[in-house]
């Protein structure tokens, strides 16, 4: 496999991963998931600079969970 990581650094990373507790691993997963969500929202906002934060969030929901859920959320927020 191709890698730009130094072999010694990779060994250290693997050892740290092996030593991590389940809670630490889950915290890392949550952190990376949060980062991915924030970056995808930012990409939507950059592609649509005229959209409000609410419009960006609704589009993100539509992309992640489907248009039916986004439509339900939109209706809920509009009080329907």
Structure description:
This protein is mostly helical. The chain has one domain. The chain contains four helices and no strands. The protein has helices spanning 7-19, 22-47, 53-65, 67-77. Helix 2 (22-47) crosses helix 3 and helix 3 (53-65) packs antiparallel against helix 4 (67-77). The N and C termini lie far apart (53 Å). The mean pLDDT is 95.
Give a concise summary.
By secondary structure, the protein is mainly alpha-helical. It has helices at 7-19, 22-47, 53-65, 67-77.
Name the average pLDDT. 95
Q: Tally the helices: what do you get?
A: 4
Largest sheet: none
Overall structural domain count: 1
Shape: elongated
Instruction: Report the β-strand fraction as a percent range.
Output: under 5%
Global structural class: mainly alpha
Key terms for this structure?
80 residues, single chain, elongated, mainly alpha
Topology:
Layout: H1 7-19, H2 22-47, H3 53-65, H4 67-77
Helix pairs in contact: 2-3, 3-4
């Amino acid at each position: 496999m191709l890698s730009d990581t130094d072999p010694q650094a990779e060994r250290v990373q693997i050892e740290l991963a092996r030593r991590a507790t389940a809670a630490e691993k889950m915290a890392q997963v949550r952190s990376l998931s949060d980062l991915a969500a924030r970056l995808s929202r930012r990409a939507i906002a950059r592609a649509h600079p005229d959209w409000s934060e609410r419009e960006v969030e609704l589009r993100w929901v539509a992309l992640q969970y489907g248009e039916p859920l986004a439509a339900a959320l939109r209706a809920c927020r509009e009080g329907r």
